[in-house]
């Protein structure tokens, strides 16, 4: 059983990585091309309504997706009942947001936003059609099929976005690209998923998942609102151009930080749910997950801080230079993301969804207080407040989640401290390049990256860190599986 679980996990990670990075990579590449054709203001306008779409998507799923994955005795009736519930909630959400669109435009004092909202919010019912198909594939750990759907939809929607951006040169290119991505993905999941709903709906089935799902819904709503509170605040108190700079910086830093962590999380949740009763086994598994994920993500984010100037100039151009400092600050938040996410996943696996909800409320109260304080100053202080928030709530997450499996704050920091120290030493080495006579951005970027990577791995090898001993065999195995 252990070997089977290991094989499924490795195979799942491989295809989950292909899914996440190929799809997101295509989206980023297309976004970078479009960034040369549109203005920061165009990206900022779409960013203004991101929070409303995000909340709608959370309501539509309502936590039933994770409830279905976690259950061991799911029936076809369960799947069909949740499918129809998703559609019903999608129609309700779209109708409400359609009516609220003029108020959203008034809130931002931007009249054209009304029509943009009404079209953009079509992603809600469109996405609802593919939710159960995606959930079934996740439960089966069939990330290969999910990867095909994500890759194809991202590629074709990206091409559509580039063509429209070149021809119409305004925010509508981004709107249509977004809708087409969700639409194509739902269509492909229906074609390759081989699941069709029954013409039956069971209230009993929904009730059996209600308690667990509603806690996750509450958690998701609060999390979604606060994750998108920065676009909301920046769009309201600053302007669309500033929001465009911030949004592009945030999108770029999330590519490695969020993606790598979520790749592992998506696989670990269904796999570790099968061994949730064996606490010692699960504790050791999570210890390796935290150390390995942090070993990959943290140095990568520290490297991005060191190469931010060259990276932004090469990818986006001088017109986006104002986003460089935002990007560097947000990379600190991204560096800590694995610890946040993996610790929260522990609570969901052991079924502590109510505790997750309570902690989420506490965390977001802290965030709102920090924003209220920072909003009195300029944008830099507002963005720095995210770093302060991330550090404060990290201790909160590590304490309560670690308590469930006897893997607390001190043990976690002891395990990750070598990675932190050696990453900062490597950053110090590449920081010395500021004293070297000017080189072309691309040449300097390559030299910095090679110096950082070589020094980081050599230092880990010299000091024989435990994270290195965990991560290298796993990475080698993943490469072998891909081949």
Automatic annotation (TrEMBL):
Belongs to the polysaccharide synthase family. The chain crosses the membrane at residues 21-39, 45-69, 81-104, 119-138, 145-166, 172-192, 289-312, 324-343, 355-375, 381-400, 420-436, 442-459. It comes from the Bacteria. The keyword Membrane applies. It is a multi-pass membrane protein. It comes from Duncaniella dubosii. PANTHER family: LIPOPOLYSACCHARIDE BIOSYNTHESIS PROTEIN WZXC, PST FAMILY PREDICTED COLANIC ACID TRANSPORTER. The keyword Transmembrane applies. It is found in: Cell membrane. One of its GO terms (cellular component) is plasma membrane. Keywords: Cell membrane, Membrane, Transmembrane, Transmembrane helix. This is Lipopolysaccharide biosynthesis protein. Pfam families: Polysacc_synt_3.
């Amino acid at each position: 059983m252990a070997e089977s679980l290991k094989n499924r996990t490795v195979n799942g990670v491989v295809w989950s990585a292909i899914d996440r990075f190929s799809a997101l990579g295509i989206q980023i590449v297309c976004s970078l091309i479009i960034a040369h054709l549109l203005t920061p203001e165009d990206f900022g306008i779409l960013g203004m309504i991101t929070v409303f779409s995000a909340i709608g998507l959370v309501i539509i799923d309502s936590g039933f997706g994770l409830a279905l994955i976690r259950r061991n005795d799911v029936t076809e009736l369960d799947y069909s009942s949740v499918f129809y519930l998703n559609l019903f909630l999608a129609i309700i959400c779209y109708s409400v947001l359609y009516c609220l669109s003029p108020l959203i435009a008034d809130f931002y004092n931007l009249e054209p936003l009304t029509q943009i909202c009404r079209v953009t919010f079509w992603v809600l019912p469109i996405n609802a059609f593919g939710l159960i198909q995606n959930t079934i594939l996740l439960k089966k750990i069939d990330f290969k099929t999910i990867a095909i759907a994500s890759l194809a939809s991202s590629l074709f929607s990206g091409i559509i976005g580039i063509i429209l951006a070149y021809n119409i040169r305004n925010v509508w290119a981004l709107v249509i690209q977004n809708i087409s991505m969700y639409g194509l993905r739902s269509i492909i999941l229906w074609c390759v998923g081989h699941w069709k709903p029954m013409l039956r709906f069971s209230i009993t089935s929904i009730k059996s998942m209600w308690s667990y799902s509603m806690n996750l819904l509450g958690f998701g709503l609060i999390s979604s609102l606060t994750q998108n509170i920065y676009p909301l605040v920046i769009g309201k108190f600053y302007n669309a151009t500033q929001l465009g700079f911030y949004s592009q910086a945030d999108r770029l830093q999330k590519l490695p930080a969020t993606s790598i962590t979520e790749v592992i999380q998506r696989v670990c949740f269904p796999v570790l749910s099968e061994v949730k009763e064996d606490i010692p086994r699960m504790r050791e598994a999570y210890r390796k997950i935290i150390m390995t994920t942090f070993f990959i993500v943290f140095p990568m984010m520290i490297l991005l801080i060191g190469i931010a100037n060259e990276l932004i100039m090469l990818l986006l151009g001088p017109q986006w230079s104002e986003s460089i400092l935002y990007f560097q600050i947000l990379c600190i938040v991204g560096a800590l993301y694995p610890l946040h996410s993996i610790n929260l996943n522990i609570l969901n696996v052991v079924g502590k969804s109510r505790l997750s909800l309570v902690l989420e409320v506490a965390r977001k109260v802290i965030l709102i207080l920090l924003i209220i304080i920072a909003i009195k100053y300029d944008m830099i202080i507002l963005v720095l407040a995210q770093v302060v928030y991330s550090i404060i709530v990290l201790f909160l997450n590590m304490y309560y989640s670690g308590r469930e499996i006897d893997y607390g704050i001190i043990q976690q920091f002891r395990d990750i401290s070598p990675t932190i120290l050696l990453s900062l030493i490597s950053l110090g080495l590449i920081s010395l390049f500021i004293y070297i006579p000017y080189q072309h951005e691309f040449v300097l970027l390559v030299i910095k990256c090679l110096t950082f990577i070589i020094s980081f791995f050599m230092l880990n090898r010299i000091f024989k860190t435990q994270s290195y001993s965990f991560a290298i065999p796993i990475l080698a195995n993943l490469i072998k599986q891909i081949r």
